[in-house]
Amino acid sequence: MSDDIEIDTGDLTRRMEGAIAALRTEFASLRTGRASASMLEPVMVDAYGQKTPINQVGTVNVPEPRMVTINVWDKGLVNKVEKAIRESGLGINPQLNGTIIMLPIPELNEERRKELTKVASQYAEHARVAVRNVRRDGMDQIKKAKADSMSEDDQKFWESEVQELTDRYIKAVDETLETKQAEIMQV
């Protein structure tokens, strides 16, 4: 292999890691029947004229396994936070107690668990597509390098490197999905 032409596998790795990180963030928003502060991360509140994450308008706590509380700092935002939670699609009914919003987490039924596993599968497929897009970019880099005098052996070497990287991250996506689905289905 010649030293003059190299493919930046570090960049490809970083981008594939980004796809896995995005998947984990999406999975954190899926409710599993246990209370978690991270389930509120995707919920945005219309505060001060812009969309703001809940954790920037109040303190999110998990005082017990089936309860999340939000202590809203600005009394004028309590109703907006409540509205954002109701419209988020989390299936949680907020209860107001002054500036504290309590979110009791109901037990998931079997039908809802199956729905959530399907949603998790969709998230995982998006992550797989993202990893494959990074693979395609890597293969495009190799094709350009071949046009710029890369040898056949170097081309095959880099293609196998990029493919191994892709396979490793696709496997990580699948393992993360299996773990999440088992967590969702656990009663």
Write up this protein.
The chain is an alpha+beta fold. It folds into two domains: 96 residues, Topoisomerase I, Chain A, domain 4; 71 residues, Gyrase A, domain 2. The strands form two sheets. It has a four-stranded antiparallel sheet, with helices on one face. Strand 3 and strand 4 form a beta hairpin. Helix 1 packs antiparallel against helix 3, helix 1 runs parallel beside helix 4 and helix 3 runs antiparallel to helix 4. The protein is elongated. The model has no long low-confidence stretch (mean pLDDT 87).
- Rg estimate, integer Å: 22 Å
Class by SSE composition: alpha+beta
Number of domain units:
2
What top-tier CATH class of the largest domain fits best? Mainly Alpha
Query: What is the H/E string?
Result: HEEEEHEEHH
CATH topology of the largest domain: Topoisomerase I, Chain A, domain 4
Going by CATH, what is the homologous superfamily of the largest domain? Ribosome-recycling factor
Question: What is the helix tally?
Answer: 4
Query: What is the number of beta strands?
Result: 6
- Sequence of strands across the biggest β-sheet: 3-4-6-5
Helix content: 40-55%
